Amino acid sequence: MSSVKKVVLAYSGGLDTSVIIPWLKENYDGCEVIAMCADIGQGDELDVIHDKALASGASKVYIEDLVTPFLEEYVWPTLKAGAVYEGKYLLGTSFARPLIAKRLVEIAEAEGADAIAHGATGKGNDQVRFELTVKALAPQLQIIAPWRLWDIRSREDAIRYAEAHNIPVAKGNKVYSMDRNIWHLSHEGSDLEDPWNEPKDNVYLVTKAPTQAADEVTYVEVDFEKGIPVAVDGVKMGAVELLTKLNEIGAANGVGITDMVENRLVGMKSRGVYENPGGAILYYAHRELEYLTLDRATLHYKEQVAIRYAELVYDGMWFSQLREALAAFVDQTQETVTGKVRVKLYKGNIMSAGAQSPYSLYSKEFVTFEEDDVYNQADAEGFINLFGLPLKVRALMQKGQN
Q1: Is the overall model pTM greater than 0.70, yes or no?
Q2: Does any domain span residue 1?
Q3: Could you list the residue range(s) of the whole structural domain that residue 390 is in?
Q4: Which of 39, 59, 177, 264 is catalytic?
Q5: Residue 281 to residues 53, 254, 274, 355, 382: CA-CA distances in angstroms?
Q6: Candidate list 103, 114, 126, 270, residue with the active-site label
């Protein structure tokens, strides 16, 4: 342990990461600890976090504003892919971790650090996401994961350690384990650990419970350019402003609540409740536009890619060759995903209310039930004969064997 002289710690300001600072200094011969807090829209009071890190023993604190790159370089590519883990989870924590770890690596290299440390537990997915990113970008750096090393086994243990080392401990009765950024808010633990328990309405801190949402329908229009959202209700916006606006609209209408039991990468199932008001609107609208602009073969193949893409993001393989290759495929499919989608929101529901695109593949001339001059219905007989030929040949073979 004495070989580590300088460590950059992923610092959140919470109990665990605050305790990690003195623990590192105590167990690595007084090593220097630099704290890095990533602002990805979690709403923390960053000045307090800065001072708390110094009070906990950090020699330096970096407060990094990463909200815009988070959306533009991680969220939007995943949205374009249509990637949803196990059909429900919009990957809010998953794609935040590679971004944070990438910045940790950059700071560690600039500071001449020997190691990176994080506060993820040995039971979760985040330890994998942090460490795979470090391995991909800076394999020479050591990785320290105190939860896999120390004797602290509970929040009570951590509080006792903090008090013994004069570390400020936040007061309050936080019921759930939560992770928040501009994209989502997750809740785990407490009564949610029993999958039979319905989430209480007071769980939701971002989104209104659907039963408490407005009684009127809300319409919202989203414009996309090559799969990227660029405007809400006709007003052009940057990524942060756009998602903030959709979060407000979605939250007021109770949309974007997901309750699921998911398969963690480490082998256990966990239950989480997620709030994704703006993200839910964007995923729905983006999908509606793809229905209009992608041909059948591309759309169906992209559905398969989306499943694998989501698994890679969930598993922390953001910087893998396969994820990058799939992203290249996705980018090509998005060349024509440009247009406008109108959705209707009502008490937790998102419904289609119209879509248009200059690249629309929908042709009323071909699909109409009225008389037309572009489609010869007699052609369908030959198509069916050829398409069904394998079925016919197999049936003849089976009859010949009887």
Answers
A1: yes
A2: no
A3: 368-401
A4: 177
A5: 37, 11, 14, 14, 43
A6: 126
